[in-house]
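Morning run. Coffee first, then this:
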Amino acid sequence: MREPPLWAPWRLAYIKGDKPGECIFCAAARSADDAEHHVVHRGELILVMLNAFPYAPGHVMVAPYRHVPGVEQLEEPELLELMTLTRRALAALRAAMSPDGFNLGVNLGKVAGAGFDDHVHQHVVPRWEGDNNFMPVAADQRVVSQALDDSRAALVERF
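And here it is:
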């Protein structure tokens, strides 16, 4: 007997939907509505926001308010706060979700996988033992087991 399908309906909106005309990081930086933009923390120069189409529950992005394409364009205080808030994101994710490990990364350029290649940002992706099942290999799909609002609530509390 065949198992029922696993559903991840929010992915279809990203795959088939219109991509935002404006930079998601700049829109989040300008907005006062943190919940709408999935912002979990605002620093002086850098913000931390959930990825709306995550690779795993709790997948956050750490980005400067300033719109620059690469790490080399960041000023020293921005670089320091980027890493400081990355460290805080790791601590918040450990406290909220107890992952077994993390992937950290900056994709510079479309060829490197950057969805928004003109606004540098660092990904912080929590990982659990056995979280990479057959879905990415057999179906080129990922299954995320926690809603964005639930992830945001857990991380806001810990930041």
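The chain has five helices and five strands. Good start to the day.
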